[in-house]
Amino acid sequence: MERKKKEVIRLERESVIPVLKPKLIMTLANLIEHGTDRAEFLKLCKRIEYTIRAWYFLQFEDMMQLYSLFDPVSGAKKLEQQNLSPTEIHVLEQNFLTFLFQVMDKSNFKITSEEEIDVALSGQYLLNIPIKVDESKLDKELLKTYFADHPRENLPDFSDKYIIFRRGIGIDKTTDYFVMEKVDMLIGRFWGFLLRVTRLDKFFDKSRGQHKKDLKKKDDLNSEEDQDDLFVERIRLEKMDISFKNLLRKTTIQEPTFDRIIVVYREATPKSKTDRGIYIKHFKNIPMADLEIVLPEKKNPGLTPKDWVTFLVSAVVGLVAVLGSVKMPKIDLWVIFAVLSTVVGYCAKTYFTFQQNMAAYQNLITQSMYDKQLDSGKGTLLHLCDDVIQQEVKEIIISFFILMEQGNATRQDLDLRCEGLIKEEFGESCNFDVDDAVGKLEKLGIVARDSLGRYFCVALKRANEIIGTTTEELVLKANQGVMTNP
């Protein structure tokens, strides 16, 4: 089945290192020639991780304590026990959001921007029905207050009600016959042909022209090239040449996915209630075009006002055309048949398409609840805390390894070398966050700058001496002693 011009989506490359920490450490260790140096390097990696965990422990503990007051399950009772004033509660919830957004940034989650939302929803994948959020069921003060105190650029229009974080890009492919979808497209094309034959297309030119204009804007957005950005292809039925010959053939469609999605919101509650629960939901592998399935408080979908207007316009225009043909001296049955076929066919197309899309919508919602939702609430926060530690440890280890093996480097050179190492050894690409890495290395005291401003590292053995024996190592030794001497 032939496809028309490729549809490519441009996305900003992320800083997340898509390599598991154990694999990263062992791969780098195997690149070290001498066994003693390799052992020192493995010891250093453990001490770096233990130290980073200790640094973040108090911050994460404070965040978890704050969230216990706003947990939708048990937070209301704890708030009641604290006997706090509304002002104090307001301060605490804003403090929690500050912690949460900091952890999101450290975990390399980004707020989905207005442009990314527009590009994602400019196409269709498995969800082909308009989904709307019931905004009356969502609180509009929590996030609005936060962004008033912590302004950010390019926030989506709904940022006062809920916020969507995203991280990682993947690809989802679906192979199926898509018979109903293909039939729907063929009916749509036949409908357009009948409109042109009966000259009824002038009633719909305006809406179609506006649609094309909007798509052109999105195409312009996608066509901008940036060598640091990530390009992923979207393969849709709408861009394929569909005919009765390939109606019963299997077809593969493809859609870029957001590898991880986190949605934060609060439900609207009467002022008399003390429930101030903050919902945090974590999803995986969400197709961009089906992003609506993760939205909170979705309305039950139905026929859109446009569908109803089209129904009425089609019926009125068809009735007028039929009456006009009947009043003519010579009745043209073919014209009457064409008009009636057009009206009935389009109405049937709209109805059956809606029923099919409703079934697909219910299936996707069920799938998002059981297959694609990873966690929520406290579980998501614990996952984020571990993500922060894992990413920072990997950044520090890679930066130290490059300085150890390749010598002194400027900040820019170190950044490029780290990205090159990840690409060469693991076949992965990322926008390495060198500033955060060298900042932590300097704080650890194992990296400094020379007179030219270039970064250099101390020897492996000296690095281990500077960090020193960690509490975790002492506990492990104590446990080993207990096991060997029962």
Automatic annotation (TrEMBL):
<dbReference type="InterPro" id="IPR022227">
    <property type="entry name" value="DUF3754"/>
</dbReference>
<keyword id="KW-0645">Protease</keyword>
<dbReference type="Pfam" id="PF12576">
    <property type="entry name" value="DUF3754"/>
</dbReference>
<feature type="transmembrane region" description="Helical">
    <location>
        <begin position="333"/>
        <end position="352"/>
    </location>
</feature>
<keyword id="KW-0378">Hydrolase</keyword>
<feature type="transmembrane region" description="Helical">
    <location>
        <begin position="308"/>
        <end position="327"/>
    </location>
</feature>
<keyword id="KW-0472">Membrane</keyword>
<keyword id="KW-0812">Transmembrane</keyword>
<keyword id="KW-1133">Transmembrane helix</keyword>
<keyword id="KW-0031">Aminopeptidase</keyword>
<dbReference type="GO" id="GO:0004177">
    <property type="term" value="F:aminopeptidase activity"/>
</dbReference>
<protein>
    <submittedName>
        <fullName>AMINOPEPTIDASE</fullName>
    </submittedName>
</protein>
